[in-house]
Every structure is written in structure tokens, then in C-alpha cells.
Design a protein that fits this description.
By secondary structure, the protein is α/β, with parallel strands linked by helices. The chain has two domains: about 200 residues, 3-Layer(aba) Sandwich (Rossmann fold); about 220 residues, Nucleotidyltransferase, domain 5 (2-Layer Sandwich). Helices cover about 40% and strands about 20% of the residues. The chain contains 14 helices and 16 strands. Strands 3-4-5-2-6-7-1-8 form an eight-stranded mixed sheet. The protein is elongated.
Length: about 450
């Protein structure tokens, strides 16, 4: 079997535990696209071959049935065909592949899946273990290996210290210190790159695009845990955001491209007893930025984003706010792309703006997944130096933005997602979200290309 040295090292350890009935539990961290799933498929082919006469069952679970489990089944079928078993293997019940008397069972680890009753007497595999519930694994999957003390393998990439994979990893490292028997295998992108130069080039480009301390690069390629509960941005990242260009009152020239990000707040009645200020109430904030692209490359690169203006309103009635926003976006800046918070009360505003600015407005609904993606894209723009703020001008807008950037926190969530926010006890995050939405709007812009004969 054509496996790389680090894959062979893992395969030999797993097969040795199976053949000697050691019942070991392994943890395997391989950088994204480093051959983790290919290794798993090769082990499955070998087990089906070795036990096609004697019989037995191996079980593999993934965080989701579609697409992860389906992809694993397709890969095993292809490898069986590659090794000459085409026409010999049989698919049963839509989730079992049988070769002779040996079976490979594929199951979903989703909370709602029903998996009790299966037995893994050959091998139990947990794919993307960092995304599998600890409770689901302990109650429903781990017992599958108990009757024969079957070997178990947890595959994945690191995330934070609360995941199932990290728990298994730490347990294995402790056991290794006691008996010297290796149970944890870790091969980051640099190890994988030793055998694939194209992979090295790709990951180095990702590091340049995302930044070396971006959560996705750290966890998926460097295999380092992501900090949680701390600051969303470091002091150096906030410093990197600082630009030298001046704030503007309106667009500079007709050939420049401008975008906007809008974070919305509810409307309120203004009374003498209630002073509406940014510090005391949620605000509706527009961030305006100029977008440009590098002229020296034919490759479509991510845009450079220069923030040039802010607008802020607190407690403004929505009908009045509509008119002001449309005038600013259409006449003052002629924005080519606008990303607007369309969650809750923002849905009506977003709908109005879509109608008034046809083809230029992208409503953004905040969900756990979409906000995480927004945060990742924002961090990539910061780390790569593509996002720059106007030079500090001592304004209330600038002070509030810098305050929110400094107070912003991040929390890791399951399935390699994050949340970022400012604790309500400390302040608001209107400027932060507007800035992040501005980056989202810039991502919708593509460079103009001259058309010649």
C-alpha cells in the first residue's frame, strides 16, 4: 500500500494493537489534507481483507452522515476497487460495506442518530473526534468495543482544550509517560510538506492569507490549540489595524470603489430623562471603506480595505434612518456593495435598502455559523494587513471603535466555530460588527478588468 512514512507508522501501531489484542486507544492528529482519511481507508481495506473469511465488524463514526460519513464510504469503495476487489464487495442497508464475512459499518455521531446495538470487534474509528460529543461517544460508541477489548482510533485536528480529541490525547500522553508505548501521533503541515511540495506551497499561501495566528491555521495546519475566553484581538493585531490615511467626508473620485457595513440597533423614544449616547445604548453604525486590488498580479487576490468614515445614530426612528442611509450610501459614497445586519429588527431595514439600492445590498443574518465565518474572515483581513483604519483623529467614533476592539472577547464553540463579542457589562460592539460587515461587503467585490481587442 502506497502510504507516506508517517501514515505507515500509525498503521503499524493500529494493526499491531489489533493483532496482539492490546485494545489500545490511539489519538491521531494530521494536518488538514495530510492524508488522515486516506490512511483510515487503507486500514479498513486491510482489515476487510484479513478477516474476509473469519468475519468481524469494524465501526467508523463521523460527526455528520452527510457529507462526512458518505465521503468515507465512497473512499473505501474506491480503494477496494483499486486493490482488485471490484465486484467482490457488497453494500448493505446504505451504511455497511461487506467483503466476504467481514463488515465495515459507517455511522453518524449526530446527537439524534440511533447507533446502539452495533459491535466493533475489529476496530472502532472516531473521525473528526474534536467535533464529536463526549457524552455521545462515552454512552453509545465506546461500549461497542467493550466485548472484545477492540482497538480504538480517534482522528482529527486540534481545536481547544474542551474537545473529545483533546481529552483522549492528554490521557494518551500520560499513559505514554508510564509505559513508553506510543499512543498519540501528531504530524503538522511541515511534516506533511516533507513529502509533498505542492502541499507546502498551498499551506504557505494560506498562512500568508490568514496569518500564522489565525484560529483555522493554528488548529488545522499547525495543530496548535486555539485560545478561548481571551481577547479576540491581541495588542499587536490592533496596532496592525492602524493606518496612515486620513478620514474622508465623501468619495474622492468616480473611479474608486467604496463599500459599507451596517450594524443596526432598535429605535427608541428620546425623553429628557433618557440621554441616548453610544456608551448607554446600542447604536446603528455604518462603516465606509475604500476597496482596491493589487495591479501587479493576474491572480484574483483578496482586496485591500481602507476604512475612511463612520456614521453613528442612537435611538433614531427607522423611517428617518432609512432616508439618511440611502442618501449616504447612494449619493455620498455610491457604494458598490453593502453588507447589512438583517437579524431581528434589521430585517425590515435590510429589505428597504435592498429595494432602494438594487443589486448592491447583501443582507447578513447572524447565526452561530455565519458569525463564526464573519469572525474568521475579519481576522484574516487583519492578519494579512489588508484592513486598515484611518489615522486616529481623536473623534468619538475612533475612540469607541478602539475601545470595542480592545474589549472584544472570543469563545471557541463546537465544530470549529467561534463567537466574538464585547461583554454587555463592559460596553457595546456596534462599531466592531459594522467593521466586520464592511470586510464582508468588500469580499463581494471583484477587480475590474480592462477589455481590449
Amino acid at each position: 500500500m502506497q502510504l507516506r512514512p508517517y501514515q505507515l507508522e500509525i498503521a503499524r501501531a493500529v494493526l499491531g494493537s489489533i493483532q496482539d489484542n492490546l485494545g489500545l486507544t490511539f489519538s491521531v492528529e494530521i494536518a488538514r489534507q495530510g492524508g488522515k482519511n486516506e490512511l483510515s481507508a487503507h486500514i479498513e481495506v486491510l482489515l476487510l481483507t484479513l478477516f474476509m473469511a473469519a468475519g468481524g465488524s469494524a465501526v467508523k463514526c463521523s460527526p455528520t452522515f452527510k457529507p462526512q460519513t458518505v465521503i468515507s464510504m465512497s473512499r473505501l469503495k474506491q480503494r477496494l476497487d483499486d486493490f482488485g476487489f471490484g465486484g467482490a464487495w457488497i453494500s448493505e442497508m446504505g451504511y455497511i460495506i461487506r467483503l466476504g464475512s467481514a463488515r465495515q459499518v459507517f455511522l453518524s455521531a449526530e446527537e439524534s442518530s440511533s447507533v446502539v446495538g452495533h459491535t466493533a470487534d475489529l476496530l472502532l474509528e472516531i473521525d473528526e473526534s474534536q467535533d464529536v460529543s463526549k457524552e455521545k461517544y462515552t454512552k453509545e460508541f465506546r461500549p461497542m468495543a467493550s466485548s472484545v477489548n477492540a482497538t480504538t482510533v480517534h482522528y482529527g485536528t486540534t481545536w481547544d482544550d474542551s474537545t473529545l480529541l483533546e481529552e483522549i490525547k492528554q490521557s494518551n500522553l500520560d499513559l505514554e509517560k508510564r509505559d513508553g508505548l506510543r499512543r498519540h501521533f501528531r504530524f503538522d503541515w511541515q511534516e506533511v510538506s516533507r513529502y509533498n511540495q505542492n502541499y507546502r506551497s498551498f499551506v504557505e499561501a494560506e498562512r500568508s492569507r490568514l496569518g500564522g495566528d489565525h484560529p483555522l491555521f493554528l488548529s488545522q495546519y499547525a495543530l496548535l490549540p486555539v485560545r478561548t475566553g481571551g481577547g479576540f484581538l491581541s495588542r499587536s493585531q490592533i496596532g496592525q489595524l492602524t493606518g496612515l490615511h486620513s478620514r474622508l467626508l465623501c468619495r474622492e473620485s468616480a473611479d474608486k470603489i467604496y463599500v459599507a457595513g451596517i450594524d443596526l440597533a432598535g429605535e427608541a423614544e428620546v425623553t429628557e430623562e433618557l440621554e441616548l449616547t453610544v456608551g448607554g445604548r446600542d447604536a446603528a453604525v455604518i462603516t465606509i471603506a475604500e476597496v482596491s486590488f493589487s495591479p501587479v498580479s493576474d491572480i484574483v487576490e483578496d482586496p485591500q480595505i481602507r476604512v475612511v468614515e463612520h456614521y453613528c445614530w442612537v435611538g433614531k426612528k427607522h423611517p428617518e434612518l432609512y432616508r439618511m442611509m440611502v442618501d449616504i450610501l447612494r449619493n455620498t459614497w455610491r457604494c458598490s456593495s453593502v453588507a447589512v445586519d438583517a437579524t431581528g429588527v434589521g430585517e425590515a431595514v435590510a429589505s428597504f435598502l435592498r429595494h432602494a439600492l438594487r443589486g448592491r445590498v447583501a443582507p447578513f443574518k447572524f447565526t452561530q455559523a455565519s458569525k463564526s465565518a464573519l469572525g474568521f474572515n475579519f481576522l484574516a483581513a487583519v492578519n494579512s494587513g489588508r484592513l486598515k483604519l484611518y489615522a486616529g483623529d481623536g473623534s468619538d467614533d475612533y475612540r469607541e471603535l478602539m475601545f470595542e476592539l480592545g474589549r472584544a472577547r472570543s469563545v471557541c464553540r463546537p465544530n470549529q466555530t467561534i463567537n466574538f463579542y464585547v461583554d454587555p457589562a463592559e460596553g457595546h460592539d456596534d462599531y466592531l460588527m459594522s467593521l466586520a460587515l464592511c470586510v464582508e461587503a468588500a469580499a463581494q467585490i471583484r477587480p475590474r478588468k480592462a477589455v481590449g481587442r
